[in-house]
TrEMBL record, chains A, B:
It comes from the Bacteria. The lineage of its organism: Bacteria, Bacillati, Actinomycetota, Actinomycetes, Pseudonocardiales. It comes from Actinophytocola xanthii. This is DUF1989 domain-containing protein. Residues 6-170 form the DUF1989 domain.
């Protein structure tokens, strides 16, 4: 079996992925979140959009069957298998500014925004395209008053979520560099890409 | 008193606004939503971000005291007065594709995305900067399961929400072109800008 590729703790990687492929993101040790971003190869400014995804899915909870849309309303990824069921599309990727403003960090800190933009930048994606990311395994409680609370991820070691690519994409995945959202320590993820293995009918809710 | 400027039904306008100014958006007839987008004049790719705003405010409900942040984590707008209290930052601006996918429209339809990008384009803002907008008066219910439902706006005629600019901005406002979110008919809004009248301490929660 294709073992996939490791995304070391606090880092990010990106791949060019053909249409109808499967991208499985595996939480190797458990309780680790990651950021997933995608952009079609035919328009490097048409990145993933939480607003468009909420528009068409009419929900902020995304799991098997959910389609993730681009800014220009094109389907990019469909969740075809989800062993966990808790993901977040509200929070922006952690960034240097977030560590400074939110946690008082003064030194450079590894962060998902820079890891996404650096890995996608290698394929020519402008940094400004990355405005948001789909936060796999991130466990966010939304209160009745709209308040947000970050809880420890509910993933056990080896659990995964799998996406089907709906067109040719550049897909980036980070192992989130924060410790608060990851049960106290930043850990790796593993990504297994199986080209052309996604059935068009998989994951249709 | 400064009467402000009308934003006719289904249209959009944009202004260059100095720091510490007040931007009041008035629902002239009642039950009408609008999209507000802002970008700092010193970086036309650093647009408004719902994810960053949720990051720092830790809530999806924004009202008096809430700060709206840019993609690069800079404060752009602070809500300093809010006569309504129901706004949305989850849904993306209505677009031609949304009318086609969501409502089966086949002809060109006026839409907030094109109205935002056209009005800001006059100031040189790249269309790709507009990924989301703050939807004033848009009344969205979020279910316990994360499901989203659009309800009629709760605004009475003449009610308003007022923002303070936290730096020099280009601010665009549309009167939303959809009818579903606007109580059955698209109506105008009015925008009153008072340059330099915003106190730095106003609106601090």
């Amino acid at each position: 079996m294709n073992p996939g590729e490791l995304v070391p703790a606090m880092s990010g990687r990106a791949w060019r992925v053909p249409p109808r492929s499967l991208v499985e993101v595996i939480d190797v040790e458990g309780s680790q979140t990651g950021d997933v971003f995608a952009v079609p190869t035919d328009d490097l400014e048409d990145g993933l959009s939480n607003g468009r995804t909420f528009d068409y899915g009419e929900s902020i909870r995304l799991t098997t069957g959910s389609v993730l849309y681009s800014r220009r309303s094109r389907p990019l990824l469909t969740i075809v298998e989800d062993e966990v069921g808790t993901h977040d599309f509200l929070w922006a990727p952690c960034s240097q500014e977030m560590y400074e403003i939110g946690y008082g960090v003064t030194e450079p800190h590894p962060n998902c925004l820079d890891n996404l933009t650096a890995s996608l930048g290698g394929f020519g994606v402008p940094a400004a395209t990355v405005t948001i990311a789909f936060n796999v395994f991130m466990n966010v409680a939304v209160g009745q008053d709209g308040g947000l609370a970050i809880l420890p991820p509910a993933t056990a070691a080896g659990q995964s979520v799998t996406f089907r690519t709906e067109r040719e994409l550049l897909v980036a995945v980070t192992a989130c560099a924060a410790t608060t959202a990851n049960g106290g320590a930043a850990k790796p993820l593993r990504v297994r890409i199986t080209e052309g293995a996604g059935s068009p009918t998989q994951g249709r809710a």
